[in-house]
Amino acid sequence: MEIELSTLQRWRRQVAGVGAGLDRRKGSHHLVSHRLSDEERQRFMLTCNQAEFAALPSGQIVPILAILGLFIGSECSFCRVHHAYSQVHRRGRNRPPQAPRPVPQLVTRSVLHVVPTTEIENLSAAEVVLSGIRLRQW
User: Angle of helix 38-48 relative to helix 58-67, nearest 10 degrees?
Assistant: First the structure.
C-alpha cells in the first residue's frame, strides 16, 4: 500500500495533537472587511420594527427610506439581517402558501358531449369506450 508522505506527516501530527481540529481549507473564512457592524444591524432592526415599516417587506422599506432621503442599506442587506434575526416570516400582504386546486379534467360521452370527471362514476362502460378507444379514467 502506498501512502503519500504528506498524508503520513498529517496523521503523525494529528496523533501528536499538533494542529488537531484546525480547519486547514484554503477557502474564505467569512471575515470580510465590509461586514455590517452590530450597530448597523441594530439600526436595520429598529427601522424594520417601527410601526410604519413593521408590515412591509424589505422591497418596500428601502424605496420609502430613499424617498425620505435615508439610506441604511440595500434590499439584500435588509433580507440578510431579517434572516439573521429570524424575522423572515411573511411581511405585508403576502399570504401563506395554499394547496393547489385540483385541475378539472373532462371525459367525453360522444364527439360533441363533454362530462366533468366528477360524473364519471355515473357513466356506464359503454359510454366510456368510444370508437374503439378506451378513455382513461382519472
Answer: 90
